[in-house]
Amino acid sequence: MPTPHISAAKGDIAETVLLPGDPYRAKWAAETFLDNPKLVNEVRGMFGFTGTYKGNPVTIHGSGMGMPSLSIYANELITEYGAKTLIRIGSCGAMQKNINVRDVIIGMSATTLSTPSRGIFKEINFAPCADYGLLEKAVAAARAKGTTTHVGNIYSADVFYDERPDLNEIMIRHGILGVEMEAAELYNLAARHGCRALAVLTVSDHLITHEALPSSERESSFGDMVEIALQAAFA
Ligand SMILES: O=P(O)(O)O[C@H]1O[C@H](CO)[C@@H](O)[C@H]1O
Ligand SMILES: O=c1cc[nH]c(=O)[nH]1
């Protein structure tokens, strides 16, 4: 401590960590929803802030994009800083017609082609899944807010610019709700280290209708997701 990627002092990271892909979303969420947010990491521009939510210590730290990046931050937060509850707050692309931009998707499980954990799982098709207690509390928080929320299987992809449209078609046909790029490895790491994990996602674009959320509306839509994650963590 500090680690190669996090310069925070021991004790500056809370046991509850929210993980957006975008470090600027970490800054915005901390400044909007936490009391007394303090910058605790900015190595490589990957901001981490720690403050309190209703008196409970919380860190909001960027994960970067993709599972290899998420894996670096989640590993260091868990093994070096003692994080116990990790909730991804991300954007995703919807994969079902009944889902609209601005809706929230909560990932009960995450399908992949591969994850950074493939090296240890080898022939095992491990099923990365969310912590049920967090999932239940997040759904209750979303219902109480009146946020249109979908719960189910999501797709954690390795590429944003996919040269294989047939993969999306198979995911859609098997009821996958949305595509993002980090949740599966977060769930793998939480299982390995005895932590709680969940992915709460806001639909920013639609793979079938090609509708996309204008950037001007993204912050306000993402606010519901942050509040759902915070309420789930401390319910
Ligand atoms: O908005 P974030 O949390 O970064 O999540 C999604 O957006 C990025 C791709 O644009 C990937 O990280 C994907 O998972
Ligand atoms: O990974 C992502 C995130 C948002 N939208 C997508 O289509 N993919």
UniProtKB/TrEMBL annotation:
Site (Important for catalytic activity): 218
E.C. no: 2.4.2.1
Domain of life: Bacteria
Nucleoside phosphorylase domain span: 17-216
Binding site for a purine D-ribonucleoside: 5, 180-182, 204-205
Binding-site residues, phosphate: 21, 25, 44, 88-91
GO biological process per UniProt: purine nucleoside catabolic process
Pfam family, one: PNP_UDP_1
Family annotation (InterPro entries): DeoD-type, Nucleoside_phosphorylase_CS, Nucleoside_phosphorylase_d, Nucleoside_phosphorylase_sf
Quaternary structure annotation from Swiss-Prot or TrEMBL: Homohexamer; trimer of homodimers.
Functional description taken from the UniProt entry: Catalyzes the reversible phosphorolytic breakdown of the N-glycosidic bond in the beta-(deoxy)ribonucleoside molecules, with the formation of the corresponding free purine bases and pentose-1-phosphate.
Name of the protein in question: Purine nucleoside phosphorylase DeoD-type
Species this chain originates from: Pacificibacter marinus
Gene that encodes the chain: deoD
